[in-house]
Specification:
- It is a single chain.
- The longest helix is centred in the last third of the chain and has 35 residues, at 322-356.
- The strands form five sheets. Strands 13-19-18-17-16-15-14 form a seven-stranded antiparallel sheet. It has a five-stranded antiparallel sheet with strand order 6-3-4-5-10, with no helix packed on it. The protein has a three-stranded antiparallel sheet with strand order 2-12-11, with no helix packed on it.
- The model has no long low-confidence stretch (mean pLDDT 96).
- It has helices at residues 8-23, 43-54, 139-142, 176-180, 183-187, 208-215, 221-224, 268-271, 322-356, 369-382, 389-395, and strands spanning 33-36, 59-63, 72-78, 81-87, 93-97, 112-114, 117-119, 126-128, 133-135, 154-155, 157-160, 163-166, 196-205, 238-242, 245-249, 275-278, 282-287, 293-301, 308-316, 361-364.
- It has two domains: 8-57 and 181-395, Naphthalene 1,2-dioxygenase Alpha Subunit, Chain A, domain 1 (Alpha-Beta Complex); 60-160, Rieske Iron-sulfur Protein, CATH 2.102.10.
- By secondary structure, the protein is α+β, with helices and mostly antiparallel strands.
- 39% of the residues are buried.
- It has eleven helices and 20 strands.
Length: 396
């Protein structure tokens, strides 16, 4: 990647982290938060979250490495909406509701593929990469319609930092710039557009907020994960935020060896450590299985309040050789175990206990400022009408 990027914010975070590490401190918020327990199991609250958050704000639909070539496409279901994401012959990424304008079924049924056009499997209507209705089967028998009015329903998308965001509500006017609050400029330092897409899979999980709490939480690492990786981990974290998006970073001395060098020589991989979360549903964590790698976790609410899905995408900075691929596979399998058998098993137990245990609230401590900020954003957006959404994000 030839683009020269401003490292000022990253360097400031390194210095802040080093200062905290040496002083054995972390940034804390002012008080403990009491959150109603029903927020995790109430059907009405869940329905409001889906409609007011997931249907209205940009969601991470794909990564550039998944659909890098003209004709590449991906399908997924996001908050109940079937979505088709494709890269046209012109190189542009577009997204559509994956629903034929004739009778409504999906026009693309494979998870991924490459196609110049999409042919509905029900009656054979054909659509272009731009979503245009190109052909009607047995048109002379069907009757006269204006094909220009019956293309696929298009969704607004943007491709930045090797990541592809889209908004599920076709009527939404929320600006991507306002929503991202400059966070995409930080993510550009990863240069994901040049990375290799290694593998992906989808795991079932508990209520989406129970699951997402864990991605914002280092407090649990040495306890819940003591038998896997947590024994050597700190339970402390500092949080940096850009609007609702947050970087979670342990106060670390990792950069201490580089203090005597000019900041321009500090290694980028070390400067980008920690967990980068994208509101409301994404976590990006760095690993070294098979070489420099990240796991991007894309968390989406399920059909019911107690269900969610997490798609884990493993990206590698460089395409692996055979040995590196084996290491990457082992790392990816390990991460599956940690999330499914430790985080989400605990989350399912938590969900049952909260719904049936008679407890009216849960607690987030002064050391859990990231989760406090996340839940306050959730509550704020549920209460925000459409015509005020832009202003709420602009205000931060």
């Amino acid at each position: 990647m030839n683009k020269v990027l401003d490292r000022t914010e990253l360097e400031a975070m390194v210095r802040a982290g080093l200062a905290h590490a040496k002083a054995h401190t972390i940034d804390k918020v002012d008080s403990v938060l009491k959150l109603p327990a029903k927020n995790y199991f109430d059907e009405g609250i869940f329905e409001a979250e889906v409609s007011q958050i997931f249907r209205r704000v940009p969601l991470l639909l794909a990564v550039t490495a998944e659909i890098g070539k003209p004709g590449d496409f991906k399908t997924l279901t996001a908050a109940g909406v079937p979505v088709l994401v494709t890269r046209g012959q012109d190189g542009e990424v577009r997204a559509f509701v994956n629903s034929c304008s004739h009778r409504g079924t999906a026009v693309a049924t494979e998870d991924r593929g490459n196609a110049r056009r999409f042919v509905c499997p029900y009656h054979g209507w054909t659509f272009s990469q731009k979503g245009e209705l190109m052909g009607i089967a047995s048109a002379e028998d069907f009757g006269e319609i204006d094909k220009s009015c019956y293309g696929l329903v298009q969704l607004r998308v943007t491709e930045r930092a090797g990541l592809i965001w889209g908004i599920l509500d076709p009527k939404s006017t929320l600006s991507f710039d306002t929503f991202l609050a400059g966070y995409d400029k930080l993510l550009e330092h990863f240069a994901f557009e040049d990375w290799h897409f290694f593998s992906s899979r989808t795991l079932p999980g508990p209520n989406w907020k129970i699951a997402y709490d864990g991605y914002l939480d280092f407090y649990h690492l040495p306890v819940l994960h003591k038998n896997t990786f947590g024994e050597a981990m700190s339970n402390q974290a500092n949080y940096y935020n850009w609007g609702p998006h947050q970087r979670v970073q342990a106060p670390t001395r990792d950069m201490e060896a580089f203090e005597d060098k000019p900041a321009s020589e500090w290694p980028m991989d070390a400067m980008l450590n920690g967990v980068w979360t994208i509101f409301p549903h994404v976590s990006i964590a760095s690993f070294n299985g098979g070489g420099r790698a990240v796991m991007i976790s894309q968390l989406l609410p399920g059909a019911k309040v107690g269900e969610s899905t997490t798609t884990q995408m493993y990206l590698m900075e460089k395409a692996p050789n055979e040995t590196q691929a084996k290491e990457a596979y082992d790392q990816f399998e390990f991460l599956k175990y940690v999330v499914a058998e430790e985080d989400y098993v605990t989350g399912f137990r938590q969900q049952v206990a909260l719904k049936n245990g008679g407890r009216d609230h849960v607690l987030f401590g002064e050391n859990e400022g990231g989760a406090q900020r996340f839940h306050k954003w959730v509550e704020k957006l549920i209460q925000t009408p459409d015509d005020q959404l832009e202003a709420v994000f602009a205000a931060g």
